[in-house]
Design brief:
The protein is an all-alpha fold. 60% of the residues lie in helices and 2% in strands. The relative contact order is 0.20. It binds fe (ii) ion.
């Protein structure tokens, strides 16, 4: 994962790793209904944007659990315990997005196979490692995730105000989670130890060197 986004082997650059221009197969064709006020095409287009975010959230909450289980060394317990509320929140956000897709008349794709098939990023690249390594990698992950959500919010500004509002609401808490992570990587001068890095392993190396 994570998210997307951010592994050193990512197939695309950071700002685009989670952002595919291809609609998932589930969104080929037009739904038979949408919410009042939206055309069927608008509902379908909005659902396609949301499917990318559903994939992002499902990948992110699994990746966060992976970190929860694999962090070791000094500061283990603080990071281990910090992660679980983020997992629960992101799982809830995945539910919000999936149910919005269904509300719009499309079918949310929530299986692991669909996620792997549709995503255009690689798995999170760090296994058992220290707290700072994982936090630095999560900095890169959250950069990718937030970039993707902001793009989706922009894409839905003209399509569907309700979906746009949903995504903006998610950003409030997700950007705070990112700050929780970054606060461990920031010095008294306000400089991040991961500054300039865009990959998980690059950030981890920069933060520990
Ligand atoms: Fe646990």
């Amino acid at each position: 994962m994570a998210t997307a986004t951010s592994s050193t082997n990512s197939k695309k650059q950071l700002t685009t790793t989670q952002i595919s221009d291809n609609k998932p197969d589930a969104f080929e064709g037009t739904p038979s209904f949408s919410v009042p006020g939206l055309t069927l095409e608008e509902g379908s287009d909005t659902a396609a944007v949301l499917q990318r975010i559903l994939n992002t959230y499902n990948d992110l909450h699994l990746t966060l659990k992976h970190v929860h289980w694999n962090v070791v060394g000094p500061n283990f317990i603080s990071v281990h315990q910090m992660i679980d509320p983020q997992v629960e929140t992101i799982r809830g956000y995945a539910d919000d997005v999936a149910e919005r897709i269904a509300t719009l008349g499309s079918s949310p794709q929530g299986t692991p196979g669909a996620l792997v098939e549709q995503r255009d990023w690689d798995d999170y690249s760090i296994g058992r490692a220290g707290a700072i390594e994982h936090l630095a990698a999560l900095d890169a992950v959250y950069i990718g995730v937030i970039t993707s959500i902001r793009k989706a919010a922009t894409e839905t500004e003209e399509l569907d105000d309700v979906t746009n509002d949903l995504l903006i609401g998610h950003l409030h808490e997700i950007e705070q989670f990112h700050w929780f992570v970054r606060a461990h990587l920031e010095n008294a001068g306000g400089v991040l130890s991961t500054a300039g890095e865009t990959s998980e392993k690059g950030s981890a190396k920069s933060a520990t060197s």
